[in-house]
Specification:
mainly alpha; Hypothetical protein af1432; 10 helices
Length: 184
């Protein structure tokens, strides 16, 4: 896999004005793909255990989910900026949304969990991948705080926006498989 493949999968990279931040996001995906032995991001599953539980194994992709999270986070930021004049670091928001699930490439081998998933759990390894790619600590914080699977709560607005966007994007997938989200 090369950088062109990553940029083709994630056209949202163009929204990041800081070239080094954009390059770091690409590098994080390349490092994760290399470590996970992933040749094509487009076919990588979203979240195998959940997909199996919902009876939708193989129907959702990680790329689709990540792109949904970026779109939701940007829409939330747009609403807050328009209505409240809230200052949102758009580069950080998009970069964090793009790497929030980068560790899944190492956490799963196809539909099967790896020791990284079993022993470290999501998203702890993502912090390592993001740091290895030279991304700022704020991106690591977004990765670590985007899920309730850690005790780290979002410390700044961009992290909170990614967390809420991820929850909504995941619930949109679940809503396609259940009549009541409380059952998912």
């Amino acid at each position: 896999m090369d950088a062109a493949h990553v940029t083709d999968c994630f056209p949202e990279l163009d929204a990041i004005g800081d070239d080094s931040l954009q390059a770091g996001v690409v590098d994080a995906w390349l490092v994760a793909a290399d470590e996970g032995g992933v040749a094509d991001l487009r076919s990588f599953p979203w979240l195998p255990p959940t997909e199996r539980d919902l009876g939708i194994a193989g129907e959702e992709t990680l790329v689709g989910h990540v792109r949904d999270v970026v779109a939701c986070a940007r829409a939330l930021a747009d609403a807050l900026t328009t209505r409240r004049g809230t200052d949102v670091d758009r580069d950080l928001l998009v970069a964090g949304a793009l790497v929030h699930d980068v560790s899944k490439l190492v956490e799963f081998d196809g539909m099967e969990p790896t020791p990284t998933y079993d022993l470290l759990g999501h998203p702890h390894y993502g912090v390592h991948l993001v740091a290895a790619a030279g991304l700022p600590v704020e991106c690591s914080h977004i990765v670590l705080s985007h899920t309730s699977r850690t005790t780290v709560e979002p410390a700044f607005l961009e992290a909170q926006l990614v967390r809420r966007a991820d929850e909504v994007a995941a619930d949109a997938i679940r809503a396609g498989a259940v009549d009541d989200l409380r059952e998912a």
